[in-house]
Amino acid sequence: MADTLTADSGTADSGTAKSSSTAGTRTARRPADPRRLARRRKRRLAILFVLPALLLLGALVVYPVVFSVGRSLFDADGDRFVGVGNYAAIVHDPATLKAIRNSTIWVVVAPLLLTGLGLMLAVLTEKVRWATAFKLVLFLPMAVSFLAAGIVFRLAYEQDPDRGVLNAVAVGVHDTFDDAAAYPTARIREGQGLTGRAGGPYSTEKGVRTGGSVSLGFVGVAPDAVPAGAKAAAAPAPAADGIAGVVYLDFAPGGAGTPGRVDPGEKGLPGMTVEAVRDGRVAATTTAADDGSFRLTGLADGEYSVRLPAANFAAPYQGVNWLGPALVTPAIIGAYLWVWTGFAMVLIGAGLAAIPRDALEAARMDGAGEGQIFRRITVPLLAPVLTVVFVTLVINVMKVFDLVYIIAPGPVQEEANVLATRMWLVSFGGGNDQGLGSALSVVLLLLVVPAMVFNIRRFRRSGA
C-alpha cells in the first residue's frame, strides 16, 4: 500500500515536473515586445549611419588634437620629453608675444566692427528699394576664397600708385590740392658752380652781384619729364637792379655740347622757383620762364646767393605705406571686413525681420523718434542675434591665417603675425620646431573652445 502511494506520488511529481517544464518552455518562447525591437533596430541603424562620420571626426579632429597635446610635451626633434617647457617658451619668445598681441587686436576690433557694420547695413537695407540686390552685392565676397581675397588686397595695397588702387586714389586726391614738384630727379653737375645735398636746396658756390648773371645747369631729367612747353634755353640780358640767369637741362641730344654752358638744343626748365638770398633772408623770388630764363629784380646793390629751394626737387607723393610695420595689421583687418560684412548683415537682417512690427509701430505712435526706437527697442530685441554673430566672428578671427599670410610682405610678416600664422611658421615655415608649434596649437584650441561652448549653449537655448 505504501509502495503504491509512493509510486503514485512519484508519478504525480513527474507530471508536475513535466507541466512546469512545458510552462517554462511556453514562457521562453513568448515573443518579445515589438516596440523594444523597433527601438533596437532604429538604434542600430542610427549607429550604422553615424559610424562613418564618427570615424572621420576621430581621424581628422580627435586624433590630431590628442597627438598635438602629446607632441607639445617634447622638444623640436620629438626625442626628448620637456614637459611644459614649450609652453614656458611661448611667454619668453618676443615674436610669439607679438603674435598674441596682434591676435588680441583682431579679437577686440574685427568682431566689434563687423557686428556694428552688419547692424547698420541691416537696418539701412530695410529702407532701400533694391534691398535684395544690395544684400547680394555685399554678400558676394563670402563666395571668394581667402586666397583670392588676399591676392586682391595685396595688389590694392601696393605702394606703387601705378599698381595699387588705394595709393592711386590717395595720390590723385593729394595732387589735386598740392602741386607736385616739377623736377624730382634733377641733380647738379659737379664742378659747375652749384652746391647742395641731393633733393635740394641748391645754391651758387660764389655770390652774384646785382647786374650780374648766372647759368644753372642740371642733369638727371629724362627728356619725357621736361614740360611740353619748354623752349630752347636762353640767357637774358643782365638787369642793373637785379640778377638774371637761366635754369636749363645741361644735356644736348647726342651727348654734344660743353658742360656748364648753354649749348644749342638744350632746353630750359620752366616753372623752377629761384630765390635771391642775402644774410639768410630771401630778398627776391621769381619763376623761370619757358626758356628757363629768370630775373630777380628790386635788389639793393650788393652780393647775393642764388638759391633753388628744395620744393623744386621734392620726391612725388607716393601714397600711404599700407603694408608697412605700422599699418599692416589694420590693413589686413580691412580686407577681413570686406569679406565678412555680408555675413554679419544677412544674419542680423534675418533677426531684424523676426522683430514684431507692432512694437515698433506702438513706439512710433507714442512719439518715439527713429533713433530712440533703434536704441531702446531694435537693439535690445536683437541682442541674442548680435551675441551669436559676435561670438561666431570671435571664433573665426582667432583662427584667421590666409589673409595674414598672403597680404603681409616678407619683411613685415613678423609684425602682422597672429597665433595661427606663428604656429605654422614655427612648425613648417622654416622654424622646424613642431614641439613649440604644437604648444601654440593647443593654446589656440583652449582659447577657441570657450567661445564655441558659449555659442552652442546659445543655439540650444534658442532651439528650446
TrEMBL record:
Q: Could you list the residue ranges that cross the membrane?
A: 45-66, 104-124, 136-157, 335-356, 377-395, 435-456
Query: What subcellular locations does the record give?
Result: Cell membrane
**CDD domains the UniProt entry points to:** TM_PBP2
Q: Where is this region: Disordered?
A: 1-37
Q: Which UniProt keywords apply?
A: Cell membrane, Membrane, Transmembrane, Transmembrane helix, Transport
The record gives the membrane topology as:
Multi-pass membrane protein
Low complexity biased stretches: 9-26
| Record's signal peptide | none
Q: Does the record bear Nucleus in its keywords?
A: no
User: What family does this chain come from, according to its entry?
Assistant: Belongs to the binding-protein-dependent transport system permease family.
According to UniProt, the name of this protein is ABC transporter permease subunit
